[in-house]
């Protein structure tokens, strides 16, 4: 698994019901099933990844988060995971709303477009950057709603989501320095990782 997936797995309680949206090859749900006894399933848009997952005995469905989440009943899962996919869905606000309708908690990770290297690249070259987290040119990327860690905090506040825990991931390590404040995270974090719950009125 990627490092950010390991951090997500650490936040999932054993024997939980988990839906992983954008699950890729199913590495995370496979780990959660084997190591934590979770009832974990996946939803993936890439048919090749779905076929690979199913071939390994993993319960992964082919589908689009923008369309399919509305079909799940309220409270179906303990955790709904959206890993590195928020920026690629058509309606991120609706997807988050459904995640916290069908799940008690949501785990969301996304590339941070506010990172200083991306800002510097845009300033220096005037062109869209490519990094290990943003690995494809702008004309081939699936990313249609890039956001910053600041943006995500603001959206959570506006829509009434409680940020129970958050952290910053840089490559294959968790950045303790950038995790001290949202300002540092927005500037020095390559990825944000958030654990959310609905705020109870």
Helix-strand string: HEHEHEHEHEHHEEHE
Shape label: globular
The number of helices is 8
Number of strands: 8
Helix/strand/pairing class, anyone?
A: alpha/beta
Q: What fraction of the residues are assigned to beta strands by DSSP?
A: 15-25%
Distance between the termini: 37 Å
Arithmetic mean of pLDDT: 90
Low-confidence stretches: none
Helix content: 25-40%
Q: Give the strand order of the largest sheet, numbering strands 1, 2, ... along the chain.
A: 3-2-1-4-5-8-6-7
Spatial extent as radius of gyration: 16 Å
Outline the biggest β-sheet: 8 strands, mixed
Structure description:
There is one protein chain. By secondary structure, the chain is α/β, with parallel strands linked by helices. Helix content is 35%, strand content 25%. The chain has an 8-stranded mixed β-sheet with strand order 3-2-1-4-5-8-6-7, with helices on both faces. The model has no long low-confidence stretch (mean pLDDT 90).
